[in-house]
Amino acid sequence: MARSGHRKATGRPSIKNTARTTLLYETATLTMSRKLCIMNAAKDNSINYSLDTYFPGISGAPRKTAWKRIYRWEKYRSSIEAAANKPNLQFMKSIRPLRTSTTLDTAAEEGLVAWVNELRSEGIPVSNMLLQTSAREVANDLGLTESQFRAGSTWVKSFLNRWSLSMRSKTSAGQSSAEEGEAMLTQLADKIRRIVDTNGIELIYNAD
């Protein structure tokens, strides 16, 4: 008796008896080399020729949207052309200069790194919240509004990666006695007081 093939897996049955929504892939992101080909076709022939060749079958609003995209790319022809002619960039779908989304410049971030290292050298742990507060103060000094720079969790993660920092602080195993805890608290308070006096700090935030 001939052996029949395995039945194709049907997957987990739908409890609600509804079919899965079909992906439409309506938004197509094009590479730099592809954009340049489309732009050149519009330039050497016509915009309609380019649309019919690279966006066949579209009409109405989608065709108008594609038409606008081609004209928008044309404004950045020099950048797109340069990227399309480089082997390491021609297949990229977007390009932007390094550190474009950082907002704070390198000098400002270097100041934050120095501040973090100084506090750590004094035995003071720096939390994410304390770093965010300090970063917002620096941004405010640079004339940036809160809407322009929020110092959110994404920025904190990127900042730590850029400068190879970690917010993890060392912990001691076991429990300390009440006397040892009071002594450590007094020592920490003295260190903070010296830092405040040395740097002329007037406003202190509680990072708890």
From TrEMBL:
PROSITE patterns: HTH_CENPB (PS51253). Keywords: DNA-binding. The keyword DNA-binding applies. Gene3D superfamilies: Homeodomain-like. Transmembrane segments: none annotated. Pfam families: HTH_Tnp_Tc5 (PF03221). Residues 96-169 form the HTH CENPB-type domain. GO terms for molecular function: DNA binding. InterPro entries: Homeodomain-like_sf, HTH_CenpB_DNA-bd_dom. This is HTH CENPB-type domain-containing protein.
